[in-house]
Design brief:
Layout: H1 2-8, E1 22-27, E2 35-44, E3 55-58, E4 64-66, E5 72-78, E6 86-89, E7 96-98, H2 100-105, E8 108-111, H3 128-144, E9 149-162, E10 165-179, E11 183-197, H4 209-213, H5 237-243, E12 244-254, E13 257-266, E14 275-281, E15 287-296, E16 310-324, E17 330-344, E18 349-361, H6 380-386, H7 391-397, H8 404-416, E19 417-420, E20 438-440, E21 478-479, E22 482-491, E23 494-504, E24 509-510, H9 516-542, H10 548-573, H11 579-593, H12 598-603
Parallel strand pairs: 2-8
Antiparallel strand pairs: 1-23, 2-5, 3-4, 3-6, 6-7, 9-10, 9-18, 10-11, 11-19, 12-13, 13-14, 14-15, 15-16, 16-17, 17-18, 20-23, 21-24, 22-23
Helix pairs in contact: 9-10, 9-11
Length: 605
């Protein structure tokens, strides 16, 4: 199987499978609104140049999006708010508002640059002391203010090339945790798509892209836990003066305020500090945008997949664009990360370039995230292959237009690679109990080769405090890690609920004698979870009203009851050594699932 061979190259035990087979479709009793589509392209009125990452928002709502690198935008809105004004803004340009019909009639939207006068600040324009004080004042206000937190939906787009040939394309919907000091602090993936080029000699993947994208602290002084080197925004005034040379580049205007765009370059090459361009309002001291760039002397960001491989000549560029939230908090709007590095696999040196874009939208609203805890051992590729993909839900939440380069990459991978979730015909069945990291419950029983028996393996390293897991280790000699996966997709008055009982190979282990009774004990353990999952499904189906909170409540109650039942089961069967106990539970399980084999029934009768 081509996919299996490709994924084996990523990391040990990284094969995953399509987990969601059972699903529930439930029509709900809430009001259904039809959606309308707004799309267009934002241009400079004079030059007709496209304006990338312009803000598009619906007045007095949290609905909005951002134009792509070609100035194009796409937005789905409920027909109940089509009477509201659509606002288009871009730093240095006059903000414009349009009604829905105006954009439908002409979707080429031109913005005019804002005029500004230099005479009131021209004396200060090249004064380095003024520039340092302006930056320090903006940072003092930012750090001195109470840190505000929010969450936002996010769309992540990644494209990567090897020696100018496409090797990777990722698109993911997720939920970002934000604050006004660090920017993105965490990203949880909801669903996504992957396309990649595969050949027998070389592969490169951004396996943990969410860690990279949340590894940059925008304004915290001397951050400790973050991956990316420091910029001017992570320093005090004394270090600013010591390490950087300052110059102003241009003056622009945002709303009624003049914005100074300042260039900050490191005095020493290879200092492991990033050059910085920063835009600051000269009256409000608001920071509107920030770009940090430079060659990295000490690489703390990327690690090679194989220990003997090396990464060097790393150049990185990080751009942060901020927006004023309705409560006047300047939260991150866009994060763009670009890097260029040389990857030495001992045979060849590969020039890798990658671009990651995060568009943040719909602040204070959340996706329903799957009830499933991946282990710390699982990278983002494993998560994307494992999480369910719903094409209708994706369409309703994908507020972006495919750029020309994305179209080129997609066409390339159709011919020379692998596409996952990009088309109706490109889904794969990852269910393979011999190689999979996770195994879905079925009437086909687990075998000993599915269960970790390596005595050098330390499973405690991989647990991350997940709820609803059985972590009662018997002298660290065995553990059975099973979860009930549940995910909810709400679209156009319909709840789609995907659920499955899932056994983890990586975090389950059994170091005692491998007897038939012990394997029966593990399989019945798995069966009990499947019975609980069926109870959850039936309770949701029979509920008069369906909401996400009701689904959560049903799930929580059943999982608490399940833990009580599991503890009773373990005590009564003692790892399969108590025949009477096994007979009792086998009868109960067979009645509920009809999954007992003839051999099993004979053994305990």
């Amino acid at each position: 199987m081509k996919l299996q061979k490709d994924m084996e190259k990523l990391t040990i035990n990284s094969i995953v499978f399509k987990t969601i087979i059972s699903s529930i479709l439930i029509f709900c009793n809430y009001t259904v609104y039809s959606q309308v589509t707004i799309q267009g392209i934002i241009l400079d009125n004079a030059t007709k140049q496209e304006l990338p990452y312009a803000t598009v928002s619906i007045a007095n709502t949290t609905v909005g999006t951002t134009s792509n690198e070609q100035g194009e935008f796409l937005l789905y809105i409920d027909d109940t708010i089509t009477n509201k004004q659509i606002s288009i803004s871009y730093l240095g340009y006059k903000k414009e508002s349009y009604n829905f019909n105006e954009i439908l009639t002409n979707n080429n939207i031109g913005l005019d640059t804002l005029p500004y006068l230099l005479n009131e600040i021209e004396i200060l324009f090249y004064n380095e002391k003024y520039l340092i004080n302006l930056i320090q004042k903006a940072l003092d206000i930012k750090r001195g203010s109470k840190t505000k937190k929010t969450n936002a939906k996010c769309l992540i787009k990644i494209i990567t090339s090897n020696n100018n040939e496409p090797v990777e394309m990722i698109e993911a919907l997720g939920q970002a945790d934000l604050n006004t000091i660090d920017g993105i602090t965490d990203i949880s993936i909801k669903t996504g798509k992957i396309a990649y080029e595969s050949n027998s000699n070389y592969m490169f993947f951004n396996l943990d892209f969410t860690k990279t994208l949340s590894g940059f602290s925008a304004f915290r002084k001397n951050p400790k836990k973050y991956l990316v080197p420091l910029s001017v925004c992570n320093m005090n005034k004394r270090k600013l003066e010591k390490e950087y040379v300052f110059d102003s580049q241009t003056v622009s205007q945002y709303k009624s305020e003049k914005v100074l765009n300042i260039s900050c370059k490191t005095k020493k090459e290879n200092s492991n500090l990033l050059n910085t361009n920063i835009s600051i309002g000269i009256k409000s001291f608001e920071i509107y945008s920030l770009t940090c760039y430079g060659n990295i002397k000490t690489n703390t960001i990327f690690k090679p997949m194989i220990e003997s491989h090396k990464i060097d000549s790393l150049y990185i560029e990080i751009t942060l664009l901020f927006k004023n939230h309705p409560d006047d908090s300047a939260f991150l709007k866009n994060l763009i990360v670009k890097y260029d590095l040389n990857y030495n696999d001992t045979l060849n040196i590969h020039n890798i370039t990658s671009r990651m874009i995060v568009n943040l939208y719909d602040y204070y609203n959340e996706f329903y995230l799957p009830k499933f805890k991946f282990s710390n051992y699982d990278n983002d590729y494993i998560k994307l292959f494992h999480l369910h993909y719903d094409s209708i839900y994706w369409y309703k939440n994908y507020f972006s237009i495919e750029s020309d380069i994305e179209k080129e990459y997609k066409d390339y991978f159709k011919e020379s690679g692998t596409l996952v979730n990009y088309d109706k015909n490109d889904s794969f069945d990852y269910l393979d109990s011999n190689v999979g990291v996770y195994i879905i419950w079925s009437k086909n029983k687990l075998k000993w080769e599915n269960i970790n028996n390596n005595s050098n393996y330390n499973p405690l390293h991989y647990f991350d405090g997940a709820s609803y897991r059985d972590r009662q280790f018997d002298d660290d000699l065995f553990n059975i890690d099973i979860q009930i996966y549940i995910d909810v997709y709400k679209t156009d008055g319909l709840y789609k609920i995907y659920t499955e009982s899932v056994f983890s190979k990586n975090t389950s282990f059994y170091y005692l004698e491998k007897s038939s009774e012990a394997l029966d004990f593990i399989n019945l353990y798995f069966d009990i979870y499947e019975i609980a999952r069926n109870r959850i499904v039936n309770k949701i189906k029979s509920s008069k009203t369906i909401t996400e909170s009701i689904i959560d409540s049903i799930y929580d109650v059943e999982m608490n009851d399940l833990q009580i039942q599991i503890n009773r089961y373990k005590n009564e069967v003692n790892r399969g050594m108590k025949k009477e106990g096994m007979k009792k539970w086998l009868e109960y399980i067979n009645q509920e699932t009809n999954s007992a084999t003839k051999e099993l029934l004979i053994r305990y009768n």
